[in-house]
Amino acid sequence: MVSKDQFRTAMSKFATGVTVITTIDENGQPHEMTANSFTSVCLEPPTILVCAGHTTNSFGYLDKNKKFGVNILSTGQQELGAYFAKRPEQQDGSAVYSYAYGDSELPILEGSLVFMGCNVVGEHIYGDHTIFVGEVEELMVASDDSPLLFFDSKWYDPSSS
Ligand SMILES: Cc1cc2nc3c(=O)[nH]c(=O)nc-3n(C[C@H](O)[C@H](O)[C@H](O)COP(=O)(O)O)c2cc1C
Fold this sequence. Notes:
The protein is mainly β. Helices cover 15% and strands 43% of the residues. The strands form three sheets. The protein has a seven-stranded antiparallel beta sheet with strand order 3-2-6-9-10-5-4. It has a three-stranded antiparallel beta sheet with strand order 1-11-12, with no helix packed on it. It has a two-stranded antiparallel ribbon with strand order 7-8. Strand 9 (114-126) and strand 10 form a beta hairpin. Residues 18, 33-37, 51-53, 56-58, 85-88, 150 line the site of flavin mononucleotide.
C-alpha cells in the first residue's frame, strides 16, 4: 500500500512549470490558485487539463463558471506562485499584481509568460480531485522570460547557475 506521504514525495521529484489558474468568485471578483497539474491533452482542438482538489475554492468556481484562465509563471513571479498557493483567508494582502482582460473576460495575470483562456469541455471526478478539460479559446504568448520551475518542493530559476 502506497501512503499519501510516499506518493507526495515521489511526485515532488517530477520537475514542472508553475501556473496560476484564474477564475471569478461568487462576488464577481478574480480568484487565483497556484497549480502544476496542468498539461496539454491534444492539438486539435487545442485542449489542456488541470486537476483541482475538492477542498479548494477554485474547484467550486471552475465547476460553476465552466471557464478558467491558465497563466504560466515566469521566474519573476515566484512570490505570486507562493502567495496563490495560500487560501484567501491566509493571504495578507501583501502581493503586488494586476490584471488585464481579453475576449474571454477571464483575469490575465500581468507578467506571465503565457495566458490561455479555456472553456470547460469535460470534467472527470477521481478520488479527491476533479480533472477539468479545457478547450483553449484565447491565447497570448506575452513574454520571453524564463519559466518558474518547481522541483522537490522548491522553486527554481533555470536561467540562474
Ligand atoms: C507548486 C504548487 C502546485 C500546486 N498545484 C495544485 C494543483 O494542481 N491542483 C490543486 O488543486 N492544488 C494545487 N496546489 C495547492 C493550491 O494552490 C492550494 O490548495 C490553494 O490554497 C488553493 O486555493 P483556493 O482554495 O483559494 O482555490 C499547488 C500548490 C503549489 C505550491
